[in-house]
Amino acid sequence: MNQEVTDFIAAIKEPWQVELSTNLREVVHQAIPEVTERIQYKKPHFLKNGKYAAVISTSKDAVSFTIFNAAGLELPEGMFEGPPERKTLKLRKGTTYDSKQLILWLQQASSSL
After folding, report:
1. How many Å separate Cα 88 from the centre of its chain?
2. How far apart are CA 71 and CA 56, in angstroms?
3. Which single residue of 24, 29, 59, 80 has CA 20 to 30 Å from 99?
4. What distance in Å separates the CA atoms of residue 22 and residue 19, rounded to the nearest whole number?
């Protein structure tokens, strides 16, 4: 794990966002064991073979998790936003998600990277 990403997550002001970002980072590592991490555009990016696989970003009231290369995924309607090639899940305080399903989607999306 990249220390810059660890420091970025630790510096997030809202404790619930720290917890959510930490959990989403774990999801990425479970889905893509060979993932590399870096801070780019002031947010954690996760790469497989040098190509974007996922990104975590925070805003005032949400944590966003974007899956790249998502055009082939069958996602529930209304759950994700964005164009077919990258889908973003916006999580607000108290929102739950199925980490096992997220791992499967991320594995599927990153399989051709």
Report:
1. 8
2. 19
3. 59
4. 5
